Known about the structure:
Blueprint: H1 2-31, H2 37-63, H3 91-117, H4 141-151, E1 157-162, E2 170-177, E3 181-188, E4 191-199, H5 217-232, H6 239-251, E5 276-277, E6 284-285
Helix pairs in contact: 1-2
Amino acid sequence: MENQINSAINAIKLLRSSVSNVFETTLSAQNNSIQDESSFLLELQDQLSTVDVNFKSIESTINALNVPSGPFTLGNTAVLNHEADPDRQGVYTDLVNSYNWYEKTHLYSALANTMLSQNSLKRSFYTSSNKRRRPTVPVNPAQLVDHMINSINTNNMTIKVYRPFGTPTSAFLHVNLSRVMKAAIILRGLVIELVTVKGFNEPLDSVDDHWIESRYAVFRKIQDHAHCAMLHFYSPTFAELATRSFITWLASYSNIFSEPCKRCQRFLLNNLPPTYRDFRSLEPLHEECRH
């Protein structure tokens, strides 16, 4: 069966080639002046005879093919010809484009994995050259967090510690700042993982409220700056000092609506108070005035 199909395909190729020769001869005679009309007619007659022979060869080859007993097994592609909507007839092209996109994504991800594996993505420069294992002293993270909160000077803020999951390694700090704003700080040990800032009249007691941004633009800006401060003060070797510094920085927002910008001396710029606090001096600045 396979040999018969190959013979039929070869016969079709010969027919197409002979027909192309006829058209090429006719076209050349039309473009150029015919000097010997009899020779042109003889050549054209020979080519048409070849076309006729090839056409009869195709007929005999096709008639020799065995008729299949049932339909061909085309898999899911057989359903494509049932689609009559013109907007969906290009599904094959979309499938090819999707496959090419997937192959490129796989290639780029493999290259990115190779490049990233060659670099150490650590958020600190602390490395230990001593390969000897040192004895570790068991410390309860919950006691460290409670001791840190009790030692912080909270004149203008109140801090409450919640452990909704009952694990000592994680804690939620709910901070109320001078009836100005609220903040929720998620800790893993003494390392800050997430900060959410909202207005004083917005809910922040439930765990689900930590994933919802404030409806006020000023507190959304403060939350963005808090994320930058969280990364700025990050230090795995001095985690307690880093968390203390962050809370001290956050406490500087108690005067956000009462102190002007240190650079432009204005309370409002683009309808916003100075939402940025310098990480060292804690001076209030507008986001546009910080550079």
